[in-house]
Amino acid sequence: MALADFDIVLFGGGGDLAMRKLLPALFARDRDGHLPPGARIICAGRHHWSREEFLNVLETNARPHVAAAETQPQRWQAFCERVQYVALDATDPAAYEPLIQAMRPDSELVRVFYMATPPALFSRICHNLADVGLANERSRVVLEKPLGRDLASARQINAEVGKVFNESQIYRIDHYLGKETVQNLLALRFGNVLFEPLWRREFISDVQITIAEELGVGNRIEYYDTAGALRDMLQNHLLQLLCIVAMEPPLSVQADPVRDEKLKVLRSLKRFNQTTLAQNIVRGQYRAGHVGGIAVPGYRQEGAPPDSRTETFVAVKAEIDTWRWAGVPFYLRTGKRMADQLAEIVVRFKALPHSIFAQPSSTFQPNCLVISLQPEEGLQLNLMAKTPGDRMRLKPVELELDFREQFKMPRMEAYERLLLDVLRGQLTLFMRSDELEAAWEWVEPILNYWEQEQTEPLPYSAGTWGPAAASALIGRDGLQWREEALPEM
């Protein structure tokens, strides 16, 4: 599908997200011939850079994140010709004249405004765009997370942005939905008959969704200490992955059928009460430790206030009150300075009810489907199989599908796919306003409980899998996190 000609404006165009993700993603799509010849990229920011200074910024901060730039310097130079920089104070409508002059007046042109800024600026920028005549019915606006700090602020953002753009023009981005493996999870569930009869409470024991990072907060401490792991990761990434796992088959892969089914999941999540708030949630904060054999400081030594109660780890037991999922626990977990860098979904099936072999059923590992999102993307199915020899002895084996090995073709990064979808006007992989608010409705009681209790997050050493209470959370149900359940080699 050929793209219509467009101007894309990156507010925050000199910032970290634009340099590490957005501009490299646009370059990759330009390199592969997806961008029309006339397409232009306008980076808007507060720095008063000349054209030459901005090109130096691109060379220093964006080009290192472009894998092919070194071997194809002419393509990088051609891409840079598309990019220009405009200095403006996005909060002041009187400062928009340079942007007006930079954009083409063609009324048939697609205009995309990407908000790579703090969410507090979203509504103001949108209203300013309307006031200076840059927003029209062909415009699209992309809102980067975090989309609010709580339900009230999320509703306010939706309402204010909605005064300028209608819902079909608003793209609330969650880059995890752009990952190839998440697309393959949809294909696995709804493109094959094999798993559908088993994808329910009668056969599934539990579902685990983990996003673990080895890195600490780095230079994001100013943002992170006001957000924490719950707002930064669980309210968006983890809940969106849960929705893809748990949703009913949509009528099609068009935007509203898919988002309707995700919304049903969010509205079916069992609400917390005082007992489950205390029992089913673990929050932690990393202390000094070792990651990959290297000593690293604790969170409070990386610039956070010495009395900070911000969580860098959270684990939650969630339940879905539907016919399909009643009684199946969903364990969500995310943290920084963990033992490994990974993102995965683990669907564990129920244990063998009876062994006909000369070994007890307790020695049989339950079948398990592992969907790996990072660092590698693939699928793994754990089965029991007979070992070679004249004895009927079974042991666990793994069937693995490595997407990079199976499909010998270049792969799109998440932001590449999502930016293409924005330019094509495809909303399937973006959150709708009611989805966003339903997620906040479920998460907000946790935030309120933490605020009321004023308790300290549990400490855990950097380079581990979080507080011991996270193991106890799942252990109370007679289960283990996947890394704890793996057999010793």
Automatic annotation (TrEMBL):
<feature type="binding site">
    <location>
        <position position="336"/>
    </location>
    <ligand>
        <name>substrate</name>
    </ligand>
</feature>
<dbReference type="Pfam" id="PF02781">
    <property type="entry name" value="G6PD_C"/>
</dbReference>
<keyword id="KW-0119">Carbohydrate metabolism</keyword>
<feature type="binding site">
    <location>
        <position position="232"/>
    </location>
    <ligand>
        <name>substrate</name>
    </ligand>
</feature>
<feature type="binding site">
    <location>
        <position position="213"/>
    </location>
    <ligand>
        <name>substrate</name>
    </ligand>
</feature>
<comment type="similarity">
    <text>Belongs to the glucose-6-phosphate dehydrogenase family.</text>
</comment>
<dbReference type="GO" id="GO:0009051">
    <property type="term" value="P:pentose-phosphate shunt, oxidative branch"/>
</dbReference>
<feature type="domain" description="Glucose-6-phosphate dehydrogenase NAD-binding">
    <location>
        <begin position="9"/>
        <end position="184"/>
    </location>
</feature>
<protein>
    <recommendedName>
        <fullName>Glucose-6-phosphate 1-dehydrogenase</fullName>
        <ecNumber>1.1.1.49</ecNumber>
    </recommendedName>
</protein>
<feature type="active site" description="Proton acceptor">
    <location>
        <position position="237"/>
    </location>
</feature>
<keyword id="KW-0560">Oxidoreductase</keyword>
<keyword id="KW-0521">NADP</keyword>
<dbReference type="Pfam" id="PF00479">
    <property type="entry name" value="G6PD_N"/>
</dbReference>
<dbReference type="InterPro" id="IPR022675">
    <property type="entry name" value="G6P_DH_C"/>
</dbReference>
<dbReference type="InterPro" id="IPR001282">
    <property type="entry name" value="G6P_DH"/>
</dbReference>
<dbReference type="InterPro" id="IPR022674">
    <property type="entry name" value="G6P_DH_NAD-bd"/>
</dbReference>
<dbReference type="GO" id="GO:0005829">
    <property type="term" value="C:cytosol"/>
</dbReference>
<feature type="binding site">
    <location>
        <position position="179"/>
    </location>
    <ligand>
        <name>substrate</name>
    </ligand>
</feature>
<feature type="binding site">
    <location>
        <position position="145"/>
    </location>
    <ligand>
        <name>NADP(+)</name>
    </ligand>
</feature>
<comment type="function">
    <text>Catalyzes the oxidation of glucose 6-phosphate to 6-phosphogluconolactone.</text>
</comment>
<comment type="pathway">
    <text>Carbohydrate degradation; pentose phosphate pathway; D-ribulose 5-phosphate from D-glucose 6-phosphate (oxidative stage): step 1/3.</text>
</comment>
<dbReference type="GO" id="GO:0050661">
    <property type="term" value="F:NADP binding"/>
</dbReference>
<dbReference type="InterPro" id="IPR019796">
    <property type="entry name" value="G6P_DH_AS"/>
</dbReference>
<dbReference type="GO" id="GO:0006006">
    <property type="term" value="P:glucose metabolic process"/>
</dbReference>
<feature type="binding site">
    <location>
        <position position="175"/>
    </location>
    <ligand>
        <name>substrate</name>
    </ligand>
</feature>
<keyword id="KW-0313">Glucose metabolism</keyword>
<feature type="domain" description="Glucose-6-phosphate dehydrogenase C-terminal">
    <location>
        <begin position="186"/>
        <end position="482"/>
    </location>
</feature>
<dbReference type="GO" id="GO:0004345">
    <property type="term" value="F:glucose-6-phosphate dehydrogenase activity"/>
</dbReference>
<feature type="binding site">
    <location>
        <position position="46"/>
    </location>
    <ligand>
        <name>NADP(+)</name>
    </ligand>
</feature>
<dbReference type="InterPro" id="IPR036291">
    <property type="entry name" value="NAD(P)-bd_dom_sf"/>
</dbReference>
